[in-house]
Amino acid sequence: MADQAREEEAIRGVVDRLSSAFSATHSPEEIAAAVAKAHATFSERPVCEFVPVLVERKARVILNESIR
After folding, report:
1. Which of 3, 54, 55, 67 is at 20 to 30 A from 18, Cα to Cα?
2. CB contact at 8 A, 48 and 31
3. NCBIfam families given for it (predicted)?
4. Inter-residue contact 63 to 18 (CB < 8 Å)
């Protein structure tokens, strides 16, 4: 349970960082959706420690692609 709480906190941090980075081009809802989409791809993975880092990278790709 503690691991899940830490992961959720880290994912909130991802949303916060990406909100700062993409606020000029994306709404908060779009950013949250990109993070949720990226996070869903890792939901069944056995190693959870790196999930927030991987989610942030994947969400950045999603957000950058939608700018073009």
Report:
1. 3
2. no
3. MSMEG_6209_Nter
4. yes
pLDDT score, position 31 = 96
Residue 43 above 90 pLDDT? no
The 8-class DSSP code of residue 68 comes to -
In 3-state terms, what secondary structure has residue 67?
A: helix
List CB contacts of 29: < 8 A, sequence separation 6 or more. Answer: none
Question: pTM of the predicted model, to two decimals?
Answer: 0.75
* CA end-to-end distance (rounded Å), the chain: 40
Rounded to 5°, the CA angle 41-54-37 comes to 35
